[in-house]
Write a structure and sequence with these properties.
Length: 281
C-alpha cells in the first residue's frame, strides 16, 4: 500500500498548513499594496498630491517634456547663469558702434531704426552684443509681434530713432542721471534705464544677471532678453506694470530686475501671439 494512503491524517495536516501559509502571504501583500497606494487607493497618492500643489515653475512657458532614457546623460553643458570673472566698473566713457546693417524685424507697421554701441574698456564685443539685441527684438514674442511695428539695426553713423548702449556701471549711472533716471541701489548704479533716444544696459546686469534669477537657475540669456525688451519698451512709450497674480507670468514691463512678487520670469511682451500686460504701477 502506498505510504500516502497509510497516513491520510498527515496529508490533511500538511494541506491545512499550506492553506494557512497562502492566507498569510495574501494578507501581507494586501497590506503592502495599501501602504504603497496611500489613503486614496491610487499609487503614490500622497506624493502626487504634494507635487500637484507645489510651486509653479519660475520661468513662464510650457514645461519641457519628460526626459527619455537617452536624456539620462546630459549631452550639453548646463546653461550659463552669469559670466565668471571681474566686471569692469568703469570704462573710457567712449563708445564703439557696430557697423552692420541688420534685417528688418517684423512684418508690418512703422519702421524704427536703432544702432548698437558698446563702451570702450568694457571687455565686450560690439558685434556679439548687437546680435544678442537683435535676437531679443526679433522674437517670437518681441514688440514687433504687434504687426504695427518694425525694427532695424543700422550702422553707427546712419540716421536712427534710438541707440542701444552697453555701458559700465559708472557710465550707465551718469548717462541715466543725465536723462533724469536714478538707477542706484545702495549707492551703486544697479539697474539699466531708458533716457530720451537711449536704451542704456548696465554691464553689471548684462554679465551677472540678478540674484533671484541666478538662485532659481534662470539662464543668463533669459535675463538679457528681458532687459532689452523692458528698456526698449520704455523707448516705445510703455510704463512700468505690476504682477497680475501669483504664479502668472510677469509682464515684461514689470521691474523683474528688482522683484517678481510671486510672478514667473517672462522676457516677452507678447505671449502666444497676444500682448501680455499687467496692471499699471
Amino acid at each position: 500500500m502506498p505510504s500516502s494512503a497509510r497516513h491520510p491524517a498527515r496529508r490533511r495536516r500538511r494541506f491545512a498548513l499550506f492553506a494557512q501559509l497562502v492566507a498569510v502571504v495574501v494578507a501581507v501583500g494586501a497590506a503592502v499594496t495599501v501602504i504603497a497606494e496611500g489613503p486614496g487607493g491610487h499609487p503614490g497618492a500622497d506624493r502626487l498630491a504634494a507635487e500637484e500643489i507645489g510651486p509653479p515653475p519660475l520661468v513662464a512657458g510650457p514645461l519641457p517634456p519628460d526626459p527619455s532614457p537617452s536624456d539620462a546623460v546630459p549631452s550639453s553643458p548646463p546653461p550659463v547663469l552669469r559670466v565668471p570673472g571681474v566686471v569692469p566698473s568703469a570704462g573710457t566713457g567712449g563708445f564703439g558702434y557696430d557697423a552692420r546693417s541688420g534685417p528688418v524685424l517684423g512684418r508690418a507697421g512703422e519702421l524704427r531704426r536703432y544702432r548698437v554701441a558698446v563702451e570702450s574698456g568694457s571687455a565686450e564685443d560690439v558685434a556679439e552684443f548687437a546680435l544678442a539685441v537683435e535676437a531679443a527684438l526679433a522674437g517670437p514674442g518681441s514688440w514687433v509681434d504687434s504687426g504695427r511695428l518694425r525694427l532695424q539695426q543700422v550702422p553707427g553713423a546712419a540716421p536712427r530713432d534710438f541707440t542701444v548702449y552697453l555701458a559700465t556701471a559708472r557710465t550707465a549711472g551718469r548717462m541715466c542721471a543725465t536723462g533724469g533716471v536714478d538707477i542706484r541701489i545702495g549707492g551703486r548704479p544697479y539697474t539699466s534705464c531708458r533716457a530720451p533716444g537711449q536704451v542704456i544696459i548696465n554691464l553689471d546686469r548684462w554679465r551677472l544677471s540678478v540674484p533671484h534669477f541666478v538662485s532659481a537657475g534662470v539662464p543668463l540669456t533669459v535675463y538679457r532678453t528681458y532687459v532689452v525688451n523692458h528698456e526698449v519698451g520704455h523707448q516705445l512709450g510703455h510704463r512700468h506694470e505690476r504682477c497680475p497674480g501669483a504664479g502668472r507670468p510677469a509682464p515684461v514691463m514689470m521691474q523683474q530686475t528688482l522683484f517678481l512678487n510671486g510672478c514667473r520670469v517672462n522676457p516677452w511682451p507678447y505671449l502666444n501671439g497676444r500682448r501680455y500686460a499687467g496692471p499699471a504701477l
